[in-house]
Each structure stands twice: as structure tokens, then as C-alpha cells.
Amino acid sequence: MSKEIKLIHPNNRCLHLDHCSSVTLFKGNDGVNEFLVGGGAGTSNELVKFVFEHFFSGYKDVPKGIEFPIKSGCTAIQVKNREGDGYLFGRNYDYEPHQLMIVQVEPTDGYRSLSSVDTNFISDAFGEAGKHLPLRFLKKFALYTPLDGINEMGLAISVNMVQDDAIISQNRGKPKLTITTAVRVLLDKAANVEEALSILESCDMNSEKDYLCHLMIGDRSGKSVCVDYIDSKMCVTDTKVMTNFYMQEGPKYGIGTEQSMIRYQTVMSHLENKDSYSVEELANELKGVAKSNFEDFYQTTEWSIVFDLEACSAVYYRREDYTKGWEIKL
């Protein structure tokens, strides 16, 4: 299926894959330790304040009312790697046409990682000023707004929206996280699912109105879970597939989008007869539940990724062009 997979080597400057995709490398202190010690950030405004203080020695006019709006519909899958050791983790990111930045991070105190960022969420959050946001600002905010990723220990994460009007508001006196800052912390600090869950439990998760999400986390051992927050309580469900509805058994189970249930059932029906895939085959599975399979005039599958948890690599496909992929290795 994939006719071309091109190997990418990030450097300190933004490398453009096409007119709407880039890869960048960050090396050094990404601030995660300071972020946690300082109490984290439970809102977008608190995150903005931290980024300015840590990377830019403060900023005299920190904007107010900032929100990073995450409303994406997505599919995440973990399966055995049929052509090699370990497991593959696939992910579709479905949303309106937006810009993609792939961020490779080599922190001074943490695991190396790759992550994907929808930079329109950053620029849109700053309103009119966001149209002229300097690249050095954009790249630093991208560190703390990842929507998926993999680290050198083979831990993979996907952020998926849940269509519900609930708000997550944990207030136990622990460091505060939002869903994207949680991804940054976990990629830096967690070697496997159990460590990831322990870190999440040691922090207070918070969400802002209309931006409720949950996480799928997988590791090299083959373990993969969905992390829902129900009535502000962390709920963990073993699963190989996650879309956009609550997966925890109980009153909330199944609440989400109708289309996401169709995508989930489609993939699960295939896994009944086939639990191992090659990279190409998993990309084809993602293609089968991409947005072009549904009537939706506004959204596309902006990117699809196949993470190899053993090789610590990622193959990216952009806007449902599965004939051309970009491979990035940690």
C-alpha cells in the first residue's frame, strides 16, 4: 500500500515536509521538573504563564482568557507487530485542515520522545496576535500541547476527544495537569503504562469547558489502557482500541459520538480475526476508519501515525495520502 516511506532527520531548525507539516528538534531543559515542582498548570492561562516564565524569563503582558481548544475526533489502536518484535500503536487525528508540527525532544532530564502538535490550536488561542506568533514562541508552546507521542522506552499515547459537557476538576493539592501537559510529562517520565498511571494519579487533572478528552496509553509489553475521567475520578480500562466515547463500564459508558462507536466496532471486528499487523497493514486499518469513509464536509484525517514501540519509530501519513509516509526514528 505504501509506495514511499521517506526517512526524516530533524535538526535545530524547522524541517518542512510539505506546505502544512514540519519537524523540529528541541534539546535541553524542557522545564518538566520545574513545571511539576511549581505546581503545574490547571488552565491554559497558567500554562501560558509558565512557558513565558521558563523559556523567556517572563513577559510583561501575558494575555488573558487563553484556551487551547481540543475538539478532535480520533482513533487509536494497539496490535502485535507481525513483521518484527513487540507491538505497533496506530493513531488517526481527525479535525479541520490544520498545521502539523512533529516535535522531537531530547531533554536533559527525561526520556527522548516524538510528539505531534496541531499548531493552529496555539495560534488560534492567541487570537489576532496568534497570526504573528514568532516561531520561537510556537515551538516552546508546542512542547506542552502534544496530542500524541512515543518515547524511547516504547511508551505511546493518544489524546482523543469525548463529546460530553463534563469538566474535569481534581483539587487534591497535587501538581495540576491538563490533557496535553499530561502527555508531555508522561513522555518525559514514564517508561511503561504502570508508571504512566502512577504519575497521573500523583497529579490533579483539569479540563476547560467543552474540551473533554481521554487518553490511550500503550507500552512495549503489549499493555494498553484507556484513561477516562468520570466525575473527576481517574478510571482505567484495558483496551486495544479507543475512539471518542467513555470506555469505563457504568452509567457513562458509550457517551460520545455515534460515528466514534462505528469506528470502534469496525476495528474491533477486524481484531477478532487478526491481532497482528505489519506497518502497512495497520496504516490500511487506519485508512479504513479515516474521515473520508464518513459524510463530513468540514473534517479530514489530518494525520495518521504508526508507532513501532520496539524500534521507537513513527511513520506519519498526511491527510489520507497513504501512498507516502515519513519515518522518524528516535
Outline the structure in words:
With 330 residues, the chain is of the alpha+beta class. The chain has one domain (4-320): Penicillin V Acylase, Chain A (4-Layer Sandwich), CATH 3.60.60.10. 24% of the residues lie in helices and 32% in strands. It has helices at residues 32-37, 44-56, 119-125, 135-143, 179-189, 193-201, 258-271, 279-288, and strands at 4-8, 15-18, 21-28, 73-81, 87-95, 100-107, 113-118, 148-151, 156-161, 176-177, 204-205, 213-218, 224-230, 233-238, 241-242, 276-277, 300-308, 313-318, 324-329. The chain has a 9-stranded mixed beta sheet. Strand 4 (73-81) and strand 5 (87-95) form a beta hairpin. Helix 5 packs across helix 6. It is globular and about 55 Å long. The model has no long low-confidence stretch (mean pLDDT 92).
Please render the helix and strand layout as text.
Elements: E1 4-8, E2 15-18, E3 21-28, H1 32-37, H2 44-56, E4 73-81, E5 87-95, E6 100-107, E7 113-118, H3 119-125, H4 135-143, E8 148-151, E9 156-161, E10 176-177, H5 179-189, H6 193-201, E11 204-205, E12 213-218, E13 224-230, E14 233-238, E15 241-242, H7 258-271, E16 276-277, H8 279-288, E17 300-308, E18 313-318, E19 324-329
Parallel strand pairs: 1-19, 3-6, 4-16, 10-11
Antiparallel strand pairs: 2-3, 4-5, 4-15, 5-17, 6-7, 7-8, 8-9, 9-12, 12-13, 13-14, 17-18, 18-19
Kindly list the characteristics that best describe this protein.
9-stranded mixed β-sheet, alpha+beta, Penicillin V Acylase, Chain A, 330 residues
**CATH fold assignment:** Penicillin V Acylase, Chain A
CATH architecture: 4-Layer Sandwich
* CATH top level label: Alpha Beta
Tally of individual helices: 8
Strands side by side in the biggest sheet:
2-3-6-7-8-9-12-13-14
How confident overall, as mean pLDDT?
92
Please report the distance between the alpha carbons of the first and last residues: 25 Å
**Number of DSSP strands?**
19
Order of helices and strands: EEEHHEEEEHHEEEHHEEEEEHEHEEE
Quick one: biggest sheet? 9 strands, mixed
Determine the strand fraction and express it as a percent band: 25-35%
The tally of structural domains comes to 1
Helical coverage, percent range: 10-25%
Task: Describe the global form.
Answer: globular
Radius of gyration: 18 Å
